[in-house]
Amino acid sequence: MFIKDYRSEFSVTRMCTVIDVSRSAFYEWLKKPLTKTEQEDRELAEKIKQLFFDSRCTYGHRRIKKKLRKKGTKCSNDRIRRLMKQVHLVATIKKELIRRKRFKTRSWARLAVIDHILWYNSERIHSYLDDMSPMEFEQQYYNNMRLTAA
Fold it and tell me: Is the alpha carbon torsion for 49, 55, 56, 61 positive or negative?
């Protein structure tokens, strides 16, 4: 897999020599069709990437798992962690928005803060809100209030 991933940057011959694999074995491996599990891993990795980038690169394997479950995909934390590592996704340590970026003007900073608040309230899931976004939690709360009042 390493050779396949980096063959555009390094020569296949050199990489094969370094890791002690014959070139013919590498090319034979390339022709081999994917197993069912490998195909499922590829599809799952794409879903994980999408969720990771939708979370603004802040979700780790636990929150990714919760989002996948909400969308009907079941898998283990270990599998998600392994796939995130394979595709080089590392959740950033949560920092304040202002420390993450530099802004040319205060107007740009205000827009970024507003955008972050909108995302935080509508998309970001919170474990203390039963893995819902604040907007989903509020909607559920008012729906329950209406049902109990009726």
Answer: negative
Burial of 89 (0-12, 13-18, 19+ CB in 10 A): buried
Distances (CA, A) of 112 to 15, 59, 102: 44, 19, 10
Distance CA 120, CA 138 (A): 14
pTM score, whole prediction: 0.62
In the block, residue with structure tokens 């962690």? 81
Q: Band of the pLDDT at 103, cuts 50, 70, 90?
A: confident
From the list 17, 80, 31, the residue with the least C-alpha distance to 52 is: 80
SS3 sequence, the chain?
A: CHHHHHCCCCCHHHHHHHCCCCHHHHHHHHHCCCCHHHHHHHHHHHHHHHHHHHCCCCCCHHHHHHHHHHCCCCCCHHHHHHHHHHCCCCCCCCCCHHHHCCCCCHHHHHHHHHHHHHHHHHCCCEHHHCCECHHHHHHHHHHHHHHHHC
The gap from C-alpha 108 to its chain's centroid, in whole angstroms, comes to 27
Q: How confident is the model at residue 95 (pLDDT cuts 50, 70, 90)?
A: low
